[in-house]
Amino acid sequence: MLEISNLTHTYGSGPSAHTALGGIDLRVAEGELVCIVGPSGSGKSTLLRSIAGLLRPTGGRITLDGTPVAQIPDDLAVVFQDYSRSLFPWMSVADNVSLPLRRKGQSRKQRTRSAAEALEQVGLASAGSKYPWELSGGMQQRVSIARALAYRPSLLLMDEPFGSVDAQTREDLEDLTLLVRGLHNMTILLITHDIDESVYVGDRVVVLSKAPARVVGDLRVDLPGPRDQINTREHSDFVRLRGEVGRLVRGVRPSQPSAL
Amino acid sequence: MSGRALLRNRVVCGALGVATLLLLAEAAGRAGLFGQDTLPLTSTIVARTVELAGDEEFLTDVAATMTAWSLGLLLTVAVTVPLGLLLGSLPKVEATVRPLIEFLRPIPSVALIPLAILLFPDRLDLKIAVIFYASCWPILINTMYGLRDVDPVAKETLRSFGFGPLAVLWRVSLPSTAPFIATGVRLAGGIALILAVSAELLAGGSDGIGAYVIEASSSPDGLEFIIAATVWAGILGVVTNSLFIGAERRLFRWHTARAGVAA
């Protein structure tokens, strides 16, 4: 579905140039939920922005369903970390959710219905007439997710989506992501710096190195479903995978026993 | 409400201050501290001010001033907001025009009225022209700066859904700049009133608050009427300003509410 080959990106030029991506290769199959983890400053967001067409990478190739990404792809939605800046404060929650649907040429009635449906799916059926800033942070991020869902993207990109909410809300939103992923056969790419989260949510965890980023690990997560915040996190496979991802993120070779 | 609580109310406090000042002036006048041909008694001025409210000739003059004010302001908004949006979204063009703006802006607008008198034989055209020149700056500058302040994440969000630059301007940049534009329009409204009356004072003519004042200055008890007309000009300024503030509060509740959360 998504194919990335030898993707490189360098910010600036000359002695102050910063190479964020040092040749990324990645293939994502349709319907997969892939988490991308890496240390901070590892170019995770650069990767996401390149896929979204918001940034033109300096080298390499990205294809989506066989078509090279040159501009912003049609069938794609992004959930940003900063929900309070990503939602439009002058519009009601329902209008925020239905606005992108104008791109799909839907009638007003259809848009209203799609928005209401998406809000119900994220558990905010009665919040449509409120304004985003009247809601809590977690609820605002639910609105962002509803906005993406209503758009019915084939690829959903999530950039540190739960980085600005408290731990309890974070778990709720992780479970929401697992719940909605099956709704429209979406492929999801979720960027996070939280190792536990990547293992808990993902079908696959791709680990990036420090900048210039490369893929240093690609692990399949085979946990018994349905996943559950308590039991899954106690599962021996979860604990093992978490350790493996952790070592990869810290740059410790997986075969080496830890220093302790 | 107890007396102490009343004092905490800003409106009550302000009214109290004004009333005290007026009473002191009245007392000083009656005590003979200054001649009534220098400053008429407060009570006389109040009486004349009330009298003017029923004076048909004066009301026609107020209507003339406010017509020029509203037409001038309307024209300024219609021209300046799109211009500000254009300059704000095209930094290269802005850089080219910037020196011109910096040169024109500090010229005291009132000093341009004699020039405008030569250029515009029609009184209304003249007033609209000087109002435009003076009040375009706050709107232009606020629009440009407001546009620069638009959150890049908000713009990127809409872009990521495949919206083009014009749609982003219309659906994100314009609404989030609107509160800044509104502040610019409010400031411009105050300036426009100054310019309307100044043009009437300098250019003469037969209508407008300024024309009324000039006419009154040639009559024996003119001083009282000049002051009363000035009081009305002040009232008009306060009323229009608070109408603008009220409209801003109502329309941009999201702006103040969000700023309140951030603070």
From TrEMBL, chain A:
By its UniProt entry, which InterPro entries does this protein fall under?
AAA+_ATPase (IPR003593), ABC_transporter-like_ATP-bd (IPR003439), ABC_transporter-like_CS (IPR017871), ABC_transporter_ATP-bind (IPR050166), P-loop_NTPase (IPR027417)
Q: Which residues form a coiled coil?
A: none
| UniProt KW Flavoprotein keyword | no
**What positions does the domain ABC transporter occupy?**
2-235
A Pfam match: ABC_tran
Q: Which Gene3D superfamilies does the annotation name?
A: P-loop containing nucleotide triphosphate hydrolases
**Key words, A-Z:** ATP-binding, Nucleotide-binding, Transport
Q: Name one GO molecular function term.
A: ATP hydrolysis activity
Listed PROSITE patterns: ABC_TRANSPORTER_1 (PS00211), ABC_TRANSPORTER_2 (PS50893)
Protein name, as recorded: NitT/TauT family transport system ATP-binding protein
Species source reads Streptosporangium saharense
Q: The organism's lineage? A: Bacteria, Bacillati, Actinomycetota, Actinomycetes, Streptosporangiales
Automatic annotation (TrEMBL), chain B:
Q: Does the keyword Nucleotide-binding apply?
A: no
GO cellular component annotations, sorted alphabetically? Answer: plasma membrane
What's its membrane topology? Multi-pass membrane protein
Alphabetical keyword list: Cell membrane, Membrane, Transmembrane, Transmembrane helix, Transport
Where is the protein situated, by its record's location annotation?
A: Cell membrane
SUPFAM superfamilies named among the record's database cross-references: MetI-like
Q: Where are the transmembrane segments?
A: 68-88, 100-120, 126-147, 168-197, 225-245
Q: Tell me the Gene Ontology biological-process terms attached to this UniProt entry.
A: transmembrane transport
Checking PROSITE patterns in the record gives: ABC_TM1
* Residues annotated as domain ABC transmembrane type-1: 62-244
- Gene3D superfamilies linked: MetI-like (1.10.3720.10)
What family is this?
Belongs to the binding-protein-dependent transport system permease family.
The name this protein carries in UniProt is NitT/TauT family transport system permease protein
Organism listed in the record: Streptosporangium saharense
Q: What is the lineage of its organism?
A: Bacteria, Bacillati, Actinomycetota, Actinomycetes, Streptosporangiales
